[in-house]
Amino acid sequence: MGLLRFATAGSVDDGKSTLIGRLLYDTKSIFQDQLDSIEATSIQMGNDYTNLALLTDGLRAEREQGITIDVAYRYFATPKRKFIIADTPGHVQYTRNMVTGSSRADLVLILIDGRHGMTEQTRRHAFLTSLLRIPHVVVCVNKMDLIDYDEQAFEAVKKEFQNFAMKLEIPDLTFIPMSALHGDNVVSRSPNMEWYQGSSLLHHLEQLHTASDRNHIDARFPVQYVIRPQSGEYHDYRGYAGTVVGGVFKVGDEVLILPSGLTSTVASLESFDGPVSEAFGPMAITMRLTGDIDISRGDMICRPNNRPQSSRYVQSMICWMSEKLEFEPGMKLAIKHSTKSSRVIVADLQYRINLETLHREMNPDSLALNEIGRASLQTTEPLFFDEYRRNRNTGSFILIDEATNATVAAGIIVGSGV
Fold first, then answer.
1. How many whole angstroms separate alpha carbon 147 and alpha carbon 124?
2. pLDDT in tens, 109-167
3. Which CATH code of 1.20.1340.10, 3.40.109.10, 3.40.50.300, 3.30.1490.100 fits the domain covering 3-211?
4. What CATH number was assigned to the domain covering residues 221-302?
5. Do 59 and 71 form a contact (C-beta atoms < 8 A)?
6. N or C: at which end does the chain have fewer Cβ atoms within 10 angstroms?
7. What angle is formed at CA 19 by the lines to CA 13 and CA 25, rounded to 5 degrees?
8. Which has the minimum average pLDDT: 71-85, 294-308, 316-330?
C-alpha cells in the first residue's frame, strides 16, 4: 500500500499524544529502553499508569505543562504499510505548527473528547484541514472509557461534527469511538463497544486508498538541478533532476519547457534504482531530453497541450508565521514556489479569518503571528502554478524575509489576477 502520512489535530487534552503513543506501543514500534524511560518518568510525575503521551511530548516544556508545543514526527511500520505521523499542537498560539505539520498529510486524525464534544479548537482545526485540502479525515471520539462506552454519547458527537462539516470541503469522513489510554479500537476492535461495527483505527489506516488523491492528469516536473559533468566519459551528459509533482511522463513523450516555450522529447528517465519507462508523482528522477536546450533550476517541464497557469499576480491564502514582523500591504519579500525563487510585493490584504468564529474580517491592516487571511501578491517574475485545490505541490509557496532569511509565511494559491 506504500507510505501514508497523517497528522493529529484537536483541542488541548483530547489525547493526541496518548493516541500516537498507543499506536507505537501496540504495534511494537518502540524500544525497551524508551518504554523503561517513560515508565520511570510517569512514576516521577505521580501517574499510576504508563503515560504514553511522553513518547511524543519530547520537549521539557511539553512534559512539564502536559501539552504539545512543537510538531513531533514519528515513524512506524506494519507488514502492510509504512507511516509518518505529525503530532501537531492544539493551542491557538501554535496554529502555524498545525499548518506546517499537516501540509503534506494524506489524512488527519481529529480527536474529540467524548465527554465535552466539539470545542472552538476542534472547529478551527477542522477548518484548517478543509483549507489545506486534506482529502481524508478520521474523527476519533476519544475517552469513551470515561463515559462508560456510551453509544448515544458517541452518536451525539458524530452528529455535531457532521453538521459543522457540511460547511466545509471534506471528501472522506470517518468516525471511530475509542479510548487511547486503554487501547480500545486503536489497534484492535474493542469488546467494550460491540455496538460499533466499523474497523479499528490501525486497520482503517492500513486499508486507506490514497493513489487516486494525487493529480495524475496534469504533468508537472519542476527542474531542481541540472546535472552536467564537466569532464570524464560522461562530459556530454545533460540531465534534469527533480521530483514529479503531477501527471505521468513517459519516454518518447513530447514536452514543453517554461518559460522558454521550447519543445522537446523525453529521451530517458532515470531513478535511483536505474532507468524507468515512466515516472509519476512523487518519484524523484533525472530526465534527459533530445536536443540541446537551455534549461535551468526553476523551469517547469510540462505537456504542450496542458500548461500550468502563468502570471505575476496571484490570489493567495496566507498563514503568517513571524513573531517579529506583521504581514501588510506594500511589504516586499522573497517567495519560494516549487523550485523557483523570486521576489514579491503584497498588493493588498482583502480579509482576515477569525479563527474562533471562522468569519471574515474585511480589509484588515495586517496579519499577526498565526493569523490567516487572503492577499493579492505581485511577483517580479511569472510563476507557473496550478490552483491549490488541483495540485497541492504547484499551488503552494513560502515567503521569506530577505533581511534575516527566515521563513515568515506559508501560502496557497487560490487563483490569478489582482
1. 25
2. 999 999 989 988 888 888 889 988 999 999 999 999 999 999 999 999 999 999 999 88
3. 3.40.50.300
4. 2.40.30.10
5. no
6. C
7. 140
8. 71-85
